[in-house]
Amino acid sequence: MTKGVSHAQWFLAPYCIGMKLRSLRNEKQLTLARLSAETGLSTALLSKLETDRMMPTLSTLATISRVYGVGLGYFFNDASDHSLSVTRNLMSQGRGRSMDGGNVIPLNPGVPNRKMDARVIELAPGGTASTPEFSGESALLVYVLEGHLHLETGGLREVLESGDCAYLESELPVSWSAGGKTSCRILTVSPSSRSGRDK
Asked: Cys-Cys link to 178, which of 99, 123, 169, 190 (CB 3.0-4.6 A)?
């Protein structure tokens, strides 16, 4: 627990109560002054609650909840489903691995129970099309960061340029290669295999 943070603040932090209060007020298009008039609470108090400088009591939350038309449960649900994982400078760290004709750099390695796999794939210029190891997934999003991508699936062929995006839902294999004489970098997102390995 960080010095200066109370036990209540530490315990309630995952519920993001301040952020939820602020979101509700913005949704209702209320100013702090208007909310103050509706609840009888001071604007200074409401501001402190929204910026997590003060923990609300249950009676204060109940008063605000009545104005917004939500129950107290709104502020305390889904805390266990909330997560944020940041991996910095993956590109400069060279944390990729080689594949036929290019390199794969996982963007969310080591995240337990992740629901998606994100990767940057660098394809070498020319050469034959390589089949991604996640072919046959039910869904795949491909965004071209640099270069030209030749994409083929189920008899359909497309050439994607930098800035183009393709979304596929198919059980058919997907193959691709860099078009032209330059390399191609793409961002892919697909459902996680949850195999426990970094893909």
From this structure: 123
